[in-house]
Amino acid sequence: MKEDNISDRRFEEMKETFRLIKPEMRVMEKLLSKYQLFEQDDLPAYCFELLNRRWKKNILPQRAYFLRKIYEYILWEQGVEKPDAQLEELFKVKLGFIMEVTIVIQYLHNQIIDEKFDVKNIAAVRRNLIASNILREILFQYIQQEIEGYGHEIKQVVEKSISNILLHVDLGQRLEQEYNHYDSYKKNPPLSICQTSIGLFSDLDCIRPIIESIKGEIPQKIDFIEVYFRRIYLTNGCFYTFMTQLVLNILGYKDESKKEDLSNFAVIFGVATQITNDIVDFVPPIKNNGKNLSSNTVGKNSTDSYSDLKNGNITLPLIYHLSKNQQRLIENYLSKPTKPNDIDNYSLEVTKEILKSRAIQKAKKVGQNIANLADNYLNIKNPSASLIMDIIEKTKWNKYYYELNKIEKTK
Questions:
Q1: What is the pLDDT of residues 258-317, one digit of tens each?
Q2: How many CA atoms are closer than 13 Å to the CA of 247, on its beta-carbon side?
Q3: CA 204, 207, 330: angle at the middle one, nearest 5?
Q4: Residues 279, 285, 290, 293: what is their CA dihedral angle, to the nearest 10 degrees?
Q5: pTM, to two decimals
Q6: How many CA atoms lie within 13 A of 45 on its CB side?
Q7: What is the 3-state secondary structure (H, E, C) of the chain?
Q8: Per-residue pLDDT tens for 19-51?
Q9: Fewest CB within 10 A of the end CB: N or C in the chain?
């Protein structure tokens, strides 16, 4: 396969994945209809608003596609040329759909916590909270109804995987709220790592040298840097790790060395993509083909640019920026007990400032170095490897980075 055709093929496969999983919404709606109390009450619209917006915007299902390609990757490694039709349906339809609903539940929570997509008043918070709770319960009913037919043990493995994803994301959100914010950054409390959590974060060992290198650059913030990487592992990396382990468990893959390689790849994938998201947060509302770049993802408005800054969440670009120890526009903003709503009025100056400090460039380099590690863990002869790798290549260069580069070059 020619290099310039890989992205095109991946794009077509992602669109195919979308077409395969989208009809499952009708199954969810039927399950939910049992709880509709009166004719005028559009309960599906209430609960599935964000999910429907995702479908209408044709947002390609990255997690469903990732799971599909890991499945196909393992089948090739096992020498399976013609997989069972039931197995194909399980991985390409049912489990992919489950993962996309799971991430929407996470989005609903995240909008509350970070006040995204105009979820900034008590009425909107209540709506998201109720919708996410109902959606979670209906999702588990879907698993009970739709996955049981593939075997009781498989259903239990799927339920455990989804529970673990949601639990770890919540743990990551708590870590962010308690320790990964500006006040904690300034106070810089020493943190003694609980021995019981060592195993939980051992997956980070595959990128440990890079983490330690950053600590060497900013030795006064070693505990805070550790918290940041643990947080993004919990909120994003774990999702891909648990998906990968789910596929390995169902397919009964026995090669322990290759299982570890795939788990390491999942960690790298999740962490690298989250660092990219943290960088993209500094892209101001910029028009691209008539659309705001910063609103090109589901659950995000153009006003959601700088959401980390607005919420006082200290991401990798901000860790680098604040390490300069100077009073500037960004730090002055972060130091205010109540963050004003006027940052959008001088957003371009904010982006120019963080670019001038080279913080964005350093964070990009970290993300690229982590993404480069992925080559060590996939068999390049496997036909699915190049397609999976094509996604992670977007952490090295994408349309958002192009816009940041343009801003950097302006005076």
A1: 999 999 999 999 999 999 999 998 988 755 444 454 444 433 444 567 888 888 889 999
A2: 30
A3: 95
A4: 20
A5: 0.89
A6: 3
A7: CCHHHHHHHHHHHHHHHHHHHCCHHHHHHHHHHCCCCCCCCCHHHHHCHHHHHHHHCCCCCHHHHHHHHHHHHHHHHHCCCCCCHHHHHHHHHHHHHHHHHHHHHHHHHHHHHHCCCCCCCHHHHHHHHHHHHHHHHHHHHHHHHHHHHHCHHHHHHHHHHHHHHHHHHHHHHHHHHHHCEHHHHHHCCCCCCCHHHCCCCHHHHHHHHHHHHHHHHCHHHHHHHHHHHHHHHHHHHHHHHHHHHHHHHHHCCCCHHHHHHHHHHHHHHHHHHHHHHHHHCCCCCCEECCEEHHHCCCCCCHHHCCHHHHCCECCHHHHHHHCCCCCCHHHHHHCCCCCCCCHHHHHHHHHHHHHHCCHHHHHHHHHHHHHHHHHHCCCCCCCCHHHHHHHHHCCCCCHHHHHHHHHHHCC
A8: 999 999 999 999 988 888 888 778 888 888 888
A9: C
